[in-house]
What we know:
The strands form three sheets. A ten-stranded mixed β-sheet has the order 1-6-5-3-2-7-4-8-9-10. The protein has a five-stranded mixed barrel with strand order 11-16-17-18-20. Strands 12-13 form a two-stranded antiparallel ribbon. The chain is α/β, with parallel strands linked by helices. Residues about 1-5, about 295-325 and about 500-505 have low confidence and may be disordered. The chain is built from 28 helices and 20 strands. InterPro entries: HET (IPR010730), HetReg/Transcr_Mod (IPR052895). It holds the Pfam family HET.
Amino acid sequence: MSTQTDTHRYAPFTYATAKLSDAGAAGGAPEFRLLELLPSTTGNEPRCHIFVAEVDKSSQQYRALSYTWGLGPKDHSILVVASSSDAPNLSPAQPEALPITESLHTALLHFRQAREPVRLWIDQICINQDDYAEKGSQVGPMGSIYRNAQQVLVWLGPAAEHSDALMDAWQSIGQAARDWGLESYYTRERWDLLPPIAQNAEPSDPQTVAFQALMRTAAETFRPLLRARAHTDWFSRPWFSRAWIVQEFCLCPDTVFVCGTRTLPVELVMLALQVIQYALGRFELLSLIRGDPAAPAANDNDSDDNDNNNNNNDNNDNNDNDSDTNLTPFSVLNDILTKPTARLFSCRQRRRKFDLNLPGATGDRLHALLRKLYVEHNTQATLPRDRIYSLLDLAVDRAELGLKPDFTDQGLPEAEARMLTRAARAMIVANPSGTVDILCFAQFPKSLPLHLLPSWVPDWRGGLRPSFYSVNDVVAEHMFAACGGELRVRPVPYVRDDGSDLAGPLVDEESVLGLGGYLVDTIAAVAEGGAWDDMEWEGPTAAVRFLGFLRQVDALFERAMAREELPRLYRSQERRAEARWRVPIGDLYWTREEGTRRAPAEAVVYHRQAREFFEYIAVGAGLIAVEELERRIEEWNLSESAVTGRIERGEVGGFYRETMKLFVGKRPFVTTEGYLGMGPADAAAGDVVVVFCGGRIPFVLRPLCAAWREKRLFKYVGEAYCDGVMDGEVVERGEFSAFLLV
């Protein structure tokens, strides 16, 4: 039944009988609304009571709903029936209609019980969405509302093809993993004990035997589901892309997924995914998942029962004519690891440990949460300010940031820009957690309608590029310290100069960020041929492209070395000459075994090997003579197997090439003194390279007037690697300066 019909039959609900007091604003106990969803015996349309309660006194007396509003209009309704305590003179036959979206209407019909009322908190109903002041005041205690709930119901929607089977698989494998004790390994002390168990390092160890059996069961259980891409369909449901769901998902100890008629604790999905990831690392289990004929046993200790199960699956294989031969460990792992569950469970685990005050638990600061949701991910938020507000209750630094939800003038571009600017400033200059790393995500062009944002403010749109330098300083040591010992951000005030050619309407105080730091040098030239935008590897064409990237660096290197005087920050000509191979990889080096680390001295060899390999592949494009190719074939013993093996071992620069991909979207530059680096794609001659106090890497700024050394007004351009300044050299030998970013 649509809202149009109900609106004609019933008066609209106005919240008059469930008015919130201002006690919370005055320092008293904050209030919120709850609803009692009435049993289905009351009629076809969902009906409810709405009443007011105190947040702190309602712990464990309600369930909170996490769901997606949907994109459609509010063309359905729920009928609000006054209770006798609300309006003793109001007849039960006089309900009022409250418009709701179709997705919520569907959820209410699902959760409605046959005989008993269900007490719920639902934002769309319990907050007056037309009252912006109320929205702002209610978003404040929203974290407490979810944290205090008896249970959070994550409504994914009605059942669809394979969803029931997938929910059952999550349940069975997740519970088996919990019974095995997988969660006990989720500590810093025990985490490293798990990979040897998964890799069957000690086949006679009882724990290993049990885990190997669990992985085989998981492979057998998930095989038809992975082949049908059931997990992809499940993770593609709209709920997983909403910004607000993150805090809704993370704060309540008892949170469950609800899909159709199936319900399961969210942790069981996390545990099942962990088992599947380990299973995909075992060739024999991957063969089982793919349905390869004569898939070998998982290990030599398999029981007869496991052999029988394997025979049964072989019989099923004979009947399976649509085998997905493209099901590789990388494709499935990519499917799993790029889905939102990885970051959701990371946020939940870290916040739960923080709330429990466990040793070493630090939780996530706001900037870390924003990176998890918006860097390389397309999280959806209705308003730009929601990208910030939806995470405040999850951020452990909320108090020191001093940010409060404000929905005044929501949707107006200048108002949205103002809110994001305040948030960026707070994250950069907050004491003691301020970080200039925020600047890495102020990327261009800014999304509409946020063109009014100052250059230094991220818009936090979905799909932001990661920084080339990403270190989780909670668990890993930093590799760079361009700021030397100046590890704290040093804000500087902006003093308006009414005599400046940039005074007046062009520069307002709120849009200016003043930071202390050190000037490295002015950019003299950027590489010809454009930025490193396409870093995919697909044969001869890619080889030509990567060879071109190295030649860009070579050209600027020759220009730098033509300047005989040693730049002031280099300690020797030998170290200066290393820029040729350090710059294309930003003095970092990635391998499968060790991840990203500071580039070792032998990377100079990998640089040469990568160049030679690019030239070898590029012969198909006519870049080198056939005679030269023949010489290299003889020199390298370049059989196909030999080349493949050498690439895998990093002996022909394969890992060097992979590390170059850290600089996608960047462009080589050389400075006036001869420093070589990688900067933003739109860096230009005349831009300056600076190091801010508290900054691990340099940044590129664009002077806004000819007298920039006096006015110190700049536009932010982007992050950079600059060889020779990554270990605090400019702080040791330079002069402290103020930089005003607009």
